[in-house]
Each structure stands twice: as structure tokens, then as C-alpha cells.
């Protein structure tokens, strides 16, 4: 999982060049009066791209990290047992919840429900009703309560143990819904990836966890399809 996180945050310059080369050589290799060729050549083209980064602001980052405790593409589960949940909570600055096996199963159900909701943040898609129900139940299980502070309405977790951890997650979700950042938290549009990321784009149309990894894969697939067509 750490290797995949590193890959998403590094520049895959060679892969980016291969996509850009195709766009350039379509013009370079066109014979006079003829159709453009789709055969790539060894033109050296450098295109630098930067990502604003996948992390979410404030407490919403806890939600993003929680969803990413399962690396869908590599099949790596970070919460394989109750002790793993304790360790993860401790790493994130939360009190270890001391979960039982049944609690962990419920926590994992919540995680996948959140992943489903984040997928719906692309293109204004309809949220899965079942996932909404799981998250709604978690609001009660986590004992999330509104609190009036000097800066306005806030949300806080009132429980302890597993309900306390779930409540903190749901408090972050509630606050993000109110302040408008919730719709920016998404999962990668790559069906085999589904890594959670925060969309920093001004247009809110970000689709990939990283343009250098999954975004580039999509471009390469589109390129290969164009060659077949």
C-alpha cells in the first residue's frame, strides 16, 4: 500500500511522454495531402504536470485515509483484524477503539458504503440507497451531535470506543457536507483502483487519484483504442 501511495505522488515522466508523443507525431508524420498517421515515433517531448495533492483538508482527511485502508487494486487490507483497527486509530491520533470482531465487520461495511458515496461524486451521479442507509445508521451508532460554537454550527462525536471512532468519522462527513467540501472527496474513476482522493481542481471535475498514474493509464487505453479503430 505504501508503494502505491508513493507511486501516485511521483512523476511518471516516461509514461507522460509516450502519450504526448502520439499527439505530436500525428502532425509530424502526415504525408503531403494524406491522412495523419497513428504510428508513434521516438520524438523526445517533455510535458511536466503537477497535482495539487490527494489529501483532504482538516478532519476530512481522516475519512479519506479510512476509505484507503483497503487498496482495491492490490487487494491489500489494512484492517484485517481488530488489532489493526486499534493500530490505525492510534496512528491517526484517535483513541484505540478496542473493537470486537462484530464491530470490525460493521466498520468495514461503513468504509465500503463511504467508497460507494464518493464514487457518486463524479458527474452528479445518484448515490446508492443502500450505502446511504449504512452511513445514516453510522450517524446514530457514532453518536454524532451538533454543537453551536462561536464560529457557527459544528459536529462532534459523543461516544467512546468504536462508536467514538465512527462518530469522529461521521462528524467529519457532516461538517464537510455543511461547508461544501464533501463533494470534492471522491474515489478514482479507474474501476480497478477506487483510491480515495480530494479533488483540488477549480472546476471540481477531477476524476483520477493521480493524473500521473490512473489518468495516464486512461489516456494510454484511449490511444490504444484509437489505433484499433
Automatic annotation (TrEMBL):
Where does the source fall among the domains of life?
Bacteria
Sequence ranges assigned to domain Zinc finger CGNR in this UniProt record? 184-224
Q: Which organism is it from?
A: Nocardioides aquaticus
Q: Which Pfam families match?
A: ABATE, zf-CGNR
Name this protein carries in UniProt: Zinc finger CGNR domain-containing protein
